[in-house]
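Notebook, p. 212. Picked up where the previous page left off. The plan for this session was modest: take the two constructs that came back from the sequencing core last week, fold each one, and keep the raw output in the notebook itself so nobody has to go hunting through shared drives later. Recording the first one now, exactly as returned: residue sequence, then the structure token string.
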Amino acid sequence: MHRFTRMFFPLSCAICALLAFLTGCGGGSSSSTGTGQSAQFTHVYVVFPPSSGVNNQHLMATVMNQAAIEGVTTQTLWRDAETGTPGLATCSPVGTDTCQIDSSGWTHTYDWTTIDSNNAQWFNVAGAKKVNIIVVGINGPGTLPVCLYYNNCINQDTPYYVTSASWVGHFTPAATQDVVNANKDGCTNDVGLVATSMTRAANGVVTVTMPNQPSNGQLIYNNGDLIWVGSSTPSNFNIAQEDITSVQVQSNVLTITSANSLPVGTQVIFEGLGSATFLNNQTVTITSSTPTQFTANFTNANYGPTAVGAGTTNPLGVPVLNATSTSFQYQSGIQSAGTSSVQQTVISAEQSYPVPYETPYMTAYEAFVAAVIAHYNASANLSQISYMRVGRSVGGEAYPYCISNLENLPAPNTYSMTAWLNFYTDIDEFVQAQNPKMEILDPLNESGSGSTADKTYGSDEAGIAVSYKNASGATNGFGSQGLQASDITNYAAASDCSSDWCNMFNQYYQTGIPLELQQYGLSAPVAITNTTSATGDLRPLLPFAVQRHMTVLELYYLDALLAYDPNYCVLTGTAGACDATSSVSIPTIELPAGDQYTYFQAVGQPGQTGATGDGSYATTINTTQGQH
């Protein structure tokens, strides 16, 4: 869940910068909050800065030269570094940033060309700005409409081999690498790529037309890849989670009644059966298939038929057939010709979220983490790196994804809070063993969302984080990537902030460890039609976070531009319209064109006709600060 944030200071920026330089509190791996609120200093970094385009030009010209901005926080993506497949003795010497041996005995080769090239401009910003590193193994699609707009709603950062049979199969005892996605099991936001069209022949073979151009030397969908299909009309094009109507077992033949498009040979697993509970978590292979039911061999006493008010059957995917650069095929169980009338979503096992605490993912990920630390430890730019955050799941965060499905995994991979916290601990132990020279920050997250969110994870994760240190003996810091407006009201009502960060900051701030916050999403300084934001207005939110001992703020780059760039919205001849060719670019799917003028006016910088800057975020960032 990528977000963005801003910063605060009580003296002028120039004086703050001077004091930071003289006292050593202004960034770098040795920076500290000191002891107690009286020594607090809040560092501000632009998170996920754009690497190119008009927004990059604006950021470099108007934001990166601000004294209040200490630098950027960028991602180091697993798939950018490891483009090959591990194996026995594939590289040497092991234990370097280009060659690591994992706990299973296979070696992994890494290439840093792309990552170093992407980071070069940030290390070279005038004034030796800081560059913080987020280690990312799994990518999330972010806000659903935006990823649909860009058609990139897939995990793009886990190397394909992690879910391959050859990788998973070499572990002893036998391992599995489960994945979760929307089409397969209903997990939200992970929705796949949108197909251009789907047509089905009389034999049930469906042809999917969509851009399938080579990526990293291979097609997006290759022959043999397991895929799922969802959101089709009619639904009999879907290869997705299906509701079960009834169950029957007779003479060891299982008959399942449901809307069915699954072909013979498909493996399915059952979940959520309140009756016929003997089927929950069982996997069977379909032996016959019709549009309304399927059968499988299953050893059990005769049963039913029994109507089922709940329960689902989850296919383990169907294989891709005849892939080209513009299309591929799959076999459906519906033996009739037809055409789907709406755009559909397709997702493969490789594009889904792998379960991060399972052996195949964790073994491969730890080797990558070791390579990352070795790379930056030896970097000529090490003095510019203030901290590194190592993600446990999506992005640089640590929240367990789609818990209801993870809880249905068979042992030993069945999800529990204890197992998750053990995984969280294992990563910290592994990171500490690599002797990182930079500060390590750990993410605090909660499980679930909304009213059912379990925020107690944050207190447990904070306690784990402070048990570990870097090579210099500096205790790990921690923070939340979910700063939002409700934190203010919840805290005032003696309730928990997101991930319990308020209570954890109160508990640990006097130890002097870094306490980091990243806002939940794009701010909303005023109420705008069709635009919602959990973050809300930063002007009251940032002072609240400083009062609650925040010492590191990760500011989303669009908000940084809104604070400092008078050309965030370049007015055209008609009041209320922004010139799309000259203004900072906000995708219209995030902020409709008609709203952008109003949005800028709420907190934008003066500097052009009609731009009032009636409460600029820059004022809040530059003057609302911790004591120095």
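Okay, moving on. Second construct, recorded in the same format:
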Amino acid sequence: MNRTHNNNELRIEHVGQVVELKGWAQKVRNLGGLIFIDLRDRYGVTQLVVNPKEVDEQLYETAIKIKNEYVLCVKGVVVERESKNPNLPTGDIEVKVTELEILAEAETPPMLIQDDTDALEDTRLKYRYLDLRRPKMQRNLIVRSKVMQIVRNYLSSLDFIEVETPILTKSTPEGARDYLVPSRVHPGEFYALPQSPQIFKQLCMVAGLERYFQIARCFRDEDLRADRQPEFTQIDIETSFLTAEEIQTIVENLFAKIFKEIKGIDIKVPFDRVSYYEAMSRYGSDKPDRRFGLELVLLNDIFENTEFSIFKQVLENNGDIRAINVKNAADKYSRKEIDRLTNLAKKYHAKGLAYLKYNNGEFNGSFSKFLTDNEKQALIKRLNVEENDLLLFVSDEFETCCTALGALRKQVGKELNLINEDVYDFLWVVDFQLFEYSPEDGRYYAKHHPFTSPKPESLPYLTSDPAKCLAQAYDIVLNGYEVGGGSIRIHRREVQNQMFAALGFTQEEAYKRFGFLLDAFRYGTPPHGGIALGLDRIIMLLVNTENIRDVIAFPKTQSATCLMSDAPSKVDTKQLEELHIKVTVDEE
């Protein structure tokens, strides 16, 4: 039999037609001899009915044997259902079976194959091929496929060329940890899996391709979380001769197209531009979620004469005192709840959390006894304090203060349901520092990567005072997630050498790591820049899940393992010998 329709296709107008269907038995019900089967494929579900009075004995005996997840091939007549199901697109009809074949039997699956499965995530990942039968998971992958088609069509229409770059490449350890691949033919030497195609896409610009893109696989051996995987996919874009604003416009229009075609939503362009300093100062994050209030407020001037020793010490060390006003929430947070929030603040390296509650015209809280009347009035005015408000304070150096209070802002916003889930708020974060200093290592690191161009006004400080340098970098943020990051690149060899010097590389070290790029710069490199967009995170937000594993066909666990294939795994001694490798394991 050949399939004539999929299982989401038949409607009332098909009544009387003879059809042939294939799929999985999602549910089997025997109601006093009548057998009903919900037949599922990736398109939907059709109800089948086997009537013992209308079929031969052999067909009925076959139908009796069917269990959930058997693979079936059926032929039958479309009839109108007596008891219709308005929640099912095919709910007005059913197919009266006249021929039936079991294509494959199935054991009882270890999980429910339906959207509201009760399976634990470990079970879902171990039996991922069953998890992917669930309509919800298939919808996610269909959205992913459609987005990739939109990206390719859109960028191709703008004369971008899709170029594949190497998966086996050179280790350039500056950033996340590399995944290394030993070479059999070059004993003791290793390839690295690419953390991104960064150098190669710049070489595409040196090669004169002018507009490159790639839906690229990337690999980073780093600690994982809900929105991060060891192998991930990015939409990689690089252009020559365009400004940062022109690149951003291309990306904005791409997102507008994706959201219009996938969700039917009109995204307003251009997106807002917010400086890194403003994002941190107001929202406590360089990827701010602006769908709710609770903005951070600086209070240094109010407490300049404070008797509260903790605040006083912070101000003496040129730190900040900031607060958020959680409106009408004083009665929602007990002392135990405040302690929980304090632990969250400490997780982000704050030394503690101060709080005040405002009830009956009075402040009560961890430091209320130190407040002067002037300070009370100033707080009421600055923070718009009203009855039953809860004020949360963090005091520390700028970045710690903002980051810790930003984490509290996000947590409280979720707990009090302040976030409008129907809003998609895009923005660009710009004016990042070019470097960040590590006291532990006693050196500067590139805040983005070593090829990010400084702003022209920062060039004089590149080697003399790196802390003053701003980057021509830009991150695109959606609802509190960074979904892409890019920059204008360094295209002049002497500037790239200065950048390496600022990062503490000798000329020999820089050449050893990036020699082929520096060599290429000798032969006429155009001004260029680009961006990498996180495809997995974009899909995650489009389908409204907070777990990136829900939008990747075969993901890894939080500990970077594959429960289904049992990777990583040990290999036999012969394989190691061919690679000239000996493994030693620390028993501890």
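Notes on construct two before I forget. The mean pLDDT is 95.
Flagging for discussion at group meeting.
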